[in-house]
């Protein structure tokens, strides 16, 4: 059995929504210090809907595929729906990720939430802070690798 699904390989080889939105309404950047993955999500919002989304990811194939899939899953959706996107949904849409790569889908979820939170803060829109990861938990000091010494 292959380590990665055909869907993961497709999103790695042909990532969707790559690049920068210069006039982004919200930007979220998260990283994982132990694994070295960094994701940046840019949102263009019209009303309450995600009109466009782009990403920049520095990381492994799973990180790139997770970023690509996550952007596909939220594009055109209302912010309230994008906020319900979970790392599990990203991994399932990719037809699974190896256990030691699940942190990539977690980063994708956190980057989207960070971008939406940035949009709310830029525009003075009140929000429930419980919907967003805490500043210190944006993946900076956690890793879902099988062991502390295993490379992600």
Automatic annotation (TrEMBL):
Domain (NIF system FeS cluster assembly NifU N-terminal) ranges: 4-123
Molecular-function annotations in GO: iron ion binding; iron-sulfur cluster binding
Organism domain of life: Bacteria
Gene3D superfamilies the UniProt entry points to: 3.90.1010.10
GO BP field: iron-sulfur cluster assembly
Protein name from the UniProt record: Fe-S cluster assembly scaffold protein NifU
């Amino acid at each position: 059995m292959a380590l990665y699904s055909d869907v993961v390989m497709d999103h790695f080889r042909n990532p969707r929504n790559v690049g920068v939105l210069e006039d982004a309404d919200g930007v979220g950047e998260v990283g994982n210090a132990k694994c070295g993955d960094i994701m940046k999500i840019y949102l263009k919002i019209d009303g309450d809907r995600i009109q466009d989304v782009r990403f920049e990811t520095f990381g492994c194939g799973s990180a790139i595929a997770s970023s690509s899939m996550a952007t596909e899953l939220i594009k055109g959706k209302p912010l309230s729906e994008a906020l319900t996107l979970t790392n599990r949904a990203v991994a399932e849409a990719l037809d699974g990720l190896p256990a030691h790569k699940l942190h990539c889908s977690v980063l994708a979820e956190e980057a989207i939430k960070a971008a939406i939170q940035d949009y709310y803060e830029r525009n003075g829109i009140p929000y429930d802070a419980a919907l967003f990861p805490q500043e210190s938990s944006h993946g900076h000091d956690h890793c879902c690798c099988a062991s502390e010494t295993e490379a992600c």
